[in-house]
Design goal:
9 strands, alpha+beta, three-stranded antiparallel β-sheet, Ribosomal Protein L9, domain 2, Ribosomal Protein L9, domain 1
Length: 148
């Protein structure tokens, strides 16, 4: 079965890639979850727009990733959240929250899918999160979670 990936699938490809998979995997897993769409000539035109959008957001090369890493590691990112008297959050910090905090701290635009949180952040204080900028380059961001 020939499909076009709509989202990144580990071990298979990135958005916009045309992949050949077994019928059951495509029909029962990829398509129902919105990870892929069926391949047609018309859909192939959509691939071009998906790839253009991905290239505009993507970090270009290892050198550029190293520059962005230096920028991120020099930032002091503060995230204001609602918390109880003991410093315990009413929920947890998500990668989207961290990406927004990095942008508001004056840092580069970081895709939320690239942010890896080792364990859920459910308390105020200082934490470290990893940002995968390139397959060979990862940055560690210092994050301070403060109660509002």
């Amino acid at each position: 079965m020939k499909l076009i990936l709509a989202q990144e699938v580990e071990g298979l490809g990135a958005p916009g890639d045309i992949v050949e998979v077994k019928d059951g995997y495509g029909r029962n897993y990829l398509v129902p979850r919105g990870l892929a769409i069926g391949w047609t000539r018309g859909a192939e035109k959509q691939i071009q727009s998906i790839k253009r959008a991905r290239d505009a957001r993507a970090i270009q090369g290892k050198e550029h990733a190293s520059e962005v890493k230096n920028q991120l590691e020099q930032l002091n990112v503060t995230l204001d959240v609602k918390a109880g008297d003991t410093g315990r959050l009413f929920g947890s910090v998500t990668p989207a929250d961290i990406a927004g905090a990095i942008k508001s701290a004056g840092g580069p635009l970081v895709e939320k899918r690239a942010i890896a949180i080792a364990s859920p952040i459910k308390s105020t204080g200082k934490h470290q999160v990893s940002v995968q900028l390139h397959p060979e380059v990862a940055a560690t961001v210092r994050l301070e979670v403060a109660a509002v």
